[in-house]
Amino acid sequence: MGKRQRLDKILSHAGCGSRREVRDLLRARRVMVNGRVVTGGELGIDPEQASVLVDGQPVQYREFTYLMLNKPAGYLTATRDRNAPTVLDLVPERWRVRRLAPVGRLDKDTEGLLLLTNDGPLAHRLLAPASRIPKTYLVRVDKPVTPEDLQSLAAGVVLDDGYWTLPAQVRPVNEGNTELELTIYEGKYHQVKRMLKAVGKQVRYLQRRTMGPLVLDPDLGLGACRELTAEEIARLKTIG
Ligand code: URA
Questions:
Q1: Ligand 1 shell residues, CB under 6 Å
Q2: Do 25 and 60 contact (CB within 8 A), yes or no?
Q3: Is the domain of 83 the same as that of 125?
Q4: Ligand 1 atom nearest 187 alpha carbon
Q5: pLDDT at 240
């Protein structure tokens, strides 16, 4: 038997809206618990046992929210900033109210896969350097990379602060050798840009395609997000 929780909290956590929107749903007699219309959010129920319906549809109880965002360039990986839009500005209100935070960081001009969650322990595990989760990037550079560059990037290069990067995987993905797929197992500040700089190249475009078991959903347009599937969440939880 799980813990009893307030109905309005359960509905809000399930993505039914902010506390105020949930109050309106209840007042409009659209919520049923165990077969009865309930109009007050303070009712205490066990979300794992009770049947909760909104407009006749079952409400899926979730303790945490996990979103995959296809980050566009121009947005800061932060929850709030006075001068620039942040990735949270892209998240619809019904999820934003759940106090999500980005897991890791993409530069303002980097696009692609960003995970947002309010599952602090999972975020912590994913970010721990020891977890060494692979992250794959599509990298476009200003000049063709040479076979020697590829070897250096794969073996490890020395960054501008003297740090020696861990072995990585790299392969060119276009004919002109100006587009690469690079998989790294760590996350130093501006790591990909600095790795390419170490071999004399400047990054013109950067997109994250994978993070651990997560793969950027090709159906997610730039700036769009969706909840992770139960299977994606289960795979993430095997890490750390
Ligand atoms: N490496 C970078 O240089 N920038 C990013 O945004 C991510 C990895």
A1: 106-107, 110, 190-193, 206
A2: no
A3: yes
A4: 8
A5: 66
